[in-house]
Design brief:
Layout lengths: L1 H9 L5 H5 L16 E4 L2 E5 L12 H14 L14 H14 L3 E5 L2 H12 L5 E5 L4 H9 L3 E5 L4 H9 L7 E6 L11 H11 L2 E5 L14 H4 L8 E5 L9 E5 L1 H10 L1 H4 L6 H16 L2 H19 L11 E5 L3 H13 L2 E2 L1 E3 L10 E5 L6 H18 L4 H4 L1
Parallel strand pairs: 2-11, 4-5, 4-6, 6-7, 7-8
Antiparallel strand pairs: 1-2, 3-9, 8-9, 10-13, 12-13
Helix pairs in contact: 3-12, 4-12, 5-6, 5-10, 7-8, 13-15, 14-15
The structure holds 4'-deoxy-4'-aminopyridoxal-5'-phosphate.
Length: 401
């Protein structure tokens, strides 16, 4: 048995050719904090691949709050929220988050991935329907696989296709449409007003994953529903702390009954240890900052508009992105790896996104902005991107015309 298993894993070839070509871009060890500049292999690299949109991971007030929480509560909770792992600060954070996103109640999990796994696997069941955007995050897909409900996917942000799919479902069935607020690779925003009208027409509920929207869009960064002024139309709002909130963990917010149900049914909550005191305290401190210091979100958008303008001037194809996530389409896996490698050697970190994560004619460099980038860092990155495209032989849209 053991031997067969080893034969199977030893045959894994997916990364071999990229490794042999010296282009392997994953698990790159960073020797510093997650800031606009990081240290890799002893060298300074400009970070354009982080999800720390507000650049708060080294904020002194947040670090101080984490340290104080360790002094008071220790390093871990040694149990799940359900049993011995609930601290007063877990409850404080849940109350703050519910208020922040405009819902009655919230519950926090130890990662955002676990929120989607736990919520989607318990909230709908046999004979119910989960309706997903084809580009939804992997954690939504995996949560839907763990649920016993029927799963239906519609074409990305295509409201005609969504309507078509809903038309075929039984009237009386429970239906939940689960979508990303800002899509994690493409950077576009869900068409919530149209989606909400369709949901009303067919009696469906809505869940929005705001992993990339919190701290980015909406009133004081409160996310997608707030951005559209439609908080009452979204039944479940999910968020993570691993991006703008500079920490680790996640939450789901909804009406009191739904949260009470999730607290007693979501297995990734009940059977997993709770968020560490340091993480909880850091999120509370980040929320204080996000709610009272608007310049972080303003700077993020200034940087996003500036980068977009420079990239547009150079003729890069960025699709319909409307956020600090700028997908720079290369549309060829090998060239995407080559460009990433050249950029890294020139001190620019971007993330390659290739098939099967996206169709192979959609492979891209995921270029993301932080509030703390300077204009000169952005200029340096765009200049090096243009040169790397030329070296590898990728034409920008402007050059193709
Ligand atoms: N949802 C989306 C849209 C995400 O992009 C991610 C993380 N990349 C998650 C959920 C999972 O969040 P976490 O990293 O907190 O587990």
């Amino acid at each position: 048995m053991g031997k067969r298993l080893h034969e199977k894993v030893a045959q894994f070839q997916d990364a071999t050719s990229i490794k042999e070509a010296g282009l392997y871009p994953y698990f790159r060890p960073i020797e510093s904090g997650q800031d606009t500049e990081v240290i890799i292999d002893g060298k300074r690299v400009l970070m354009f691949g982080s999800n720390s949109y507000l650049g708060l991971t080294n904020h002194p007030k947040i670090k101080e709050a984490s340290k104080r929480a360790i002094d008071k509560y220790g390093t871990g909770c040694a149990g799940s929220r359900f049993l011995n792992g609930t601290l007063d600060i877990h409850i404080e954070l849940e109350n703050r988050l519910a208020k922040y996103v405009g819902k009655e109640a919230a519950v926090i999990f130890s990662t955002g991935f676990q929120v989607n796994l736990g919520v989607l696997s318990c909230i709908t069941g046999r004979n119910d329907y989960l309706i997903l955007d084809e580009y939804d995050h992997a954690s939504i897909i995996d949560g839907s696989r763990l649920s016993f409900s029927r799963v239906i996917k519609f074409a990305h942000n295509d409201m005609d296709d969504l309507r078509q799919k809903l038309k075929n479902l039984p009237d009386e069935a429970v239906k939940l449409i689960a979508v990303d607020g800002i899509f994690s690779m493409e950077g576009d925003i869900v068409k919530l007003p149209e989606l909400s009208d369709i949901a009303d027409e067919f009696g469906a509920n809505i869940m929005v994953d705001d992993a990339h929207s919190l701290g980015v869009i909406g009133h004081k960064g409160a996310g997608t529903a707030s951005h559209f002024g439609m908080t009452d139309k979204v039944d479940l709002i999910m968020g993570t702390f691993s991006k703008s909130f500079a920490s680790l963990g996640g939450f789901i917010a909804a009406d009191k009954d739904t949260i009470e149900y999730i607290k007693h049914k979501a297995r990734s909550l009940i059977f997993s240890a709770s968020m560490t005191p340091a993480s909880v305290a850091s999120v509370i401190a980040a929320l204080d900052i996000i709610e009272t210091e608007p310049h972080h979100i303003e700077n993020l958008w200034k940087n996003t508009h500036y980068a977009k303008m420079l990239l547009n001037d150079e003729g890069f194809d960025m699709g319909p992105s409307e956020s600090p996530i700028l997908p720079i389409y290369v549309r060829d896996n090998a060239k995407t790896f080559q460009t990433t490698n050249i950029l890294q050697s020139q001190g620019i970190f971007v993330n390659p996104v290739v098939s099967p994560a996206v169709p192979s004619d959609s492979s891209l460099l995921r270029f993301s902005l932080m509030a703390t980038h300077t204009f000169s860092q952005i200029e340096e990155a765009v200049d090096k991107l243009s040169k790397a495209f030329k070296t590898v032989g990728v034409s920008t849209v402007k050059e193709k015309i």
